[in-house]
Amino acid sequence: MGAITIFSYNWSYLLPEFTVLGFATVLSLLDLFLGKHVKRSLIGWLSLIGILLAGYFVIHNVMTVKDPVSYMADMFRVDHFGNAFKLIFLGGMAFTLLLSLANNRDNDEVSHQSEYYYLLLTGLLGAMVMASSADMITLFVGLELLSLSSYVLVGLRKQSIQSNESAMKYVVSGGIATAVTLFGMSYLYGLTGATNLFEISQRVTEAYSSGYSFLVILSFVFIVAGLAFKISVVPNHLWTPDVYQGAPTPVTAFLAVVSKAAGFALVFRFLFTAYIGLVGPNGERVFMSEMSWYLSIIAGLSMIIGNTMALRQTNVKRMMAYSGVAQAGYLLVPFVTLTQLFFEQSLFYLFAYLLVSFGAFAVIMIVTKDQKTEDIKAFAGLYHRAPFVAIAMTFFLLSLAGIPISAGFFGKFYLFMSAIFHSSYVLSGIMIATSVISYFYYFGFIRQMYMRPGLTEAKLKVPGTAGVVIVIAVLATIVFGIVPGVALDFLHTHFNPNFDFGGMQMPSK
Asked: What is the mean pLDDT of residues 362-366?
């Protein structure tokens, strides 16, 4: 690519990525010149300013970009899909930074705070690249940028054996998942001779009809198996409880929401662009006839295993890890049903999950630091020590369980209705049964907070930035649980509900 070609692009649409990259670079250099007496929380606050500025640029793109803007031979795209996920990433990162500022103020967990903050920014940049990539090369670069940053963040508590063990398990599991993903990509490249997803979508039908149908399906299976690691679903979910337990709580929240949302963005972009238009010799849609059942099995097993394993946990972070596996299983349901509203349904569920996850992890961080234990018994008597915190946690748990008057209820309701509409009665039954199972461990928190005496009656101190996260999360959870149409109307208006992932319209059934 020559200099003339580079300068011919209108790079202003990439200001969100440039902003995050610029702040990560400048803050890493600024850290070298700051004296030891300067608190590194300054880096955290400056990072938050960068996130807000990047958010402004994304919103500007949402309001101004009507048709996709392509860069570098369509390797990178600015479109409705990418902008929607970037808003989720940036919102999650803002919450992560607020929790981090509260968690790191005593300097007892993470000693290298400057590195901590700009590693979060580089991880965010990787997620944003994944959301806008339309080529296997740039997708993989974004995936690895997010993954490498996450590996280091998990192991930043260098004095903690548990943290070191979690980081090692994360690196090994991530390396295996990366190898499996690349193996699937290599098959896809060999079959089509292209790395661009839109070129692949045009050539994969020819490969399928030319006697290579088994290899096309095999590439899909390997890619999904590798990406299952990033969204923490069966069969690549076993790393989740150990990593969630060993990482600092804000990093756990980051992995549970931002990293998982980035994984789903990759699944959206990759699978639906490359495979959704695949047509068999008889004109049948191969994705619906031969591929969706694979996703159905993963979704069902994730819901069952995630919820049943959560029943056995007493460590709250491990419990939330298995809950996250189950939630990812729920999120795979619209990928199987593929109704016209699947994009809106998925985004609404991710938005609701972002709110309740960060709110719940904020409460978990405050309580476990105060009680010096991550056992669920740390929540005993919380209502008497901090009534608002206990009530907020109750709403977060109700939303995760899918109880009415919460955003999570409508998120699950829309997914359930899409499964019914698609006649996926087995998935519908699993959703209902596993949701009932989840009540047992979610209500375990409530039993401890309201019905068990605590070791102390002293008022619980809530750090200001963590309190902001809790207030925003609980208010939004209640509001969108009462009027979910507001969020859905916003998605319908500003993000093309008929987004076709490269010219292939979504089937209605």
From this structure: 94
Distance of alpha carbon 39 from alpha carbon 312, whole angstroms: 41
Structure tokens at 279: 């047509």
Domain for residue 304, yes or no? no
* φ, ψ at 159 (rounded to 5°): -85, -5
Q: Per residue in 68-81, pLDDT tens?
A: 888 877 888 888 88
Q: Is the pLDDT of residue 509 over 50?
A: no
Domain containing 418: what range? 335-509
DSSP per-residue letters across 362-428: HHHHHHHHHHT--BGGGGTTHHHH-HHHHHHHHHHHHHHHT-SSSHHHHHHHHHHHHHHHTT-HHHH
Give me the number of domains the chain comprises. Answer: 1
Q: pLDDT digits over 115-128, tens only? A: 889 899 999 999 99
Work out the widest C-alpha separation in the chain, in whole angstroms.
Answer: 72
**Helix, strand or coil, per DSSP, at residue 232:** coil
Q: What pLDDT digit, counting tens, does each position of 133-181 carry?
A: 989 999 999 999 999 999 999 988 877 788 888 889 999 999 999 999 9
- Residue 240 in any domain: the answer is no
Q: 133 forms bridges with which residues in the sheet?
A: 76
b or e along 60-83 (b: 16 or more beta carbons within 10 Å of the residue's beta carbon)? ebbeeeeebbebeeebbbbbbbbb
